[in-house]
């Protein structure tokens, strides 16, 4: 699998992508400094999976379409599917996943999912493009799940790292059930003070922190006097933050959609947070990461 890794570069940065999942595996600068997770399997061996056609867990690991139940793993099947490389230059790559007999056994819809990566100087631009290639409405969710180094390279202390949102985030946050990963009904007070969230592994002892109605579409992650990452995600109104406490990464995850609410048992198309795309319709989900070294 690692033999298939593809690398693009801009001079300042290089990005390595695995065609399995069209997953970003590495983001490194010209000095060899790594901005992504070390993927230590003692904590979590993922890097930056793409979440499609669901974000999070489904009740019973099934979705229901027209009364028929279909098996669907947490975060969907795209992250473990091989994407075709359809375009490549020195600083750009585009991958494609289309429906097949295998995907329709879990998700009875036609679709085309393109994933693009482009480097420009110190900025990595990613864009997912979902096309409904079928003749019926396409219900789906999409999410990014990148794991960045915590601490970032540059010498700042891990405890000094924070997330600064573009807008104040006073709205309550949600949590997930430990056993099934479903969205709990009870909200918790926001851990954000104004626009600032101090990062502490204790924040994740109850699993991910989930914003189902995020005001911001951009944020900065980093530490004073050290490296920072500026993230922009104009098309995703939800966000998850997660790590296994003690790990050397922090997942900053812009989402369109979330796990099934606890107690949800309806048709998939009725699930909160979904996109319902008409036949022939398209939807973009953009994420940019700019390194400030």
Give the tags.
single chain, 293 residues, mainly beta, Beta-galactosidase, Chain A, domain 5, nine-stranded antiparallel β-sheet, six-stranded antiparallel β-sheet, 1 helix, 39% strand
Radius of gyration: 18 Å
Q: What is the CATH architecture assignment?
A: Distorted Sandwich
Tell me the total number of β-strands: 22
Strand proportion: 35-45%
Mean pLDDT: 96
Largest sheet: 9 strands, antiparallel
CATH class category name: Mainly Beta
Helix-strand sequence: EEEEEEEEHEEEEEEEEEEEEEE
Count of the domains: 1
Low-confidence stretches: none
Secondary-structure class: mainly beta
Give the fraction of residues assigned to helices. Answer: under 10%
Principal-axes geometry comes out as globular
Query: In the CATH scheme, what's the topology name?
Result: Beta-galactosidase, Chain A, domain 5
What gap, in angstroms, lies between the N and C termini? 31 Å
Number of distinct helices = 1
């Amino acid at each position: 699998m690692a033999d298939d890794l593809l690398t693009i570069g801009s001079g300042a940065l290089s990005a390595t992508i695995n065609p399995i999942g069209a997953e970003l595996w590495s983001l490194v600068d010209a000095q060899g400094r790594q901005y992504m997770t070390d993927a230590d399997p003692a904590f979590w061996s993922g890097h930056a999976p793409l979440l499609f056609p669901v974000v999070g867990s489904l009740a019973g690991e099934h979705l229901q379409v027209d009364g028929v139940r279909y098996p669907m793993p947490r975060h969907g099947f795209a992250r473990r599917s091989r994407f075709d490389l359809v375009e490549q230059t020195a600083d750009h790559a585009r991958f494609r996943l289309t429906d097949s007999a295998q995907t329709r056994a879990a998700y009875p819809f036609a679709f085309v999912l393109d994933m693009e990566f482009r480097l420009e100087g110190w900025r990595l631009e990613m864009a997912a493009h979902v096309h409904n290639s079928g003749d019926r409405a396409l219900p789906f969710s999409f999410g990014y799940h990148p794991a960045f180094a915590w601490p970032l390279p540059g010498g700042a202390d891990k405890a000094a790292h924070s997330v600064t949102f573009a807008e104040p985030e006073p709205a309550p946050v949600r949590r997930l059930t430990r056993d099934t990963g479903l969205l709990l009904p009870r909200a918790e007070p926001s851990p954000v003070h104004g626009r600032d969230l101090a990062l502490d592994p204790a924040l994740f002892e109850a699993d991910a922190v989930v914003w189902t109605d995020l005001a911001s579409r951009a944020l900065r992650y980093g530490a004073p006097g050290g490296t920072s990452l500026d993230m922009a995600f104009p098309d995703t109104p939800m966000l998850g933050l997660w790590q296994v406490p003690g790990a050397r990464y922090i997942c900053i995850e812009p989402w369109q959609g979330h796990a099934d609410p606890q107690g949800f048992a309806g048709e998939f198309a009725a699930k909160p947070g979904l996109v319902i795309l008409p036949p022939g319709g398209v939807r973009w989900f953009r994420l940019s990461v700019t390194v400030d070294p």
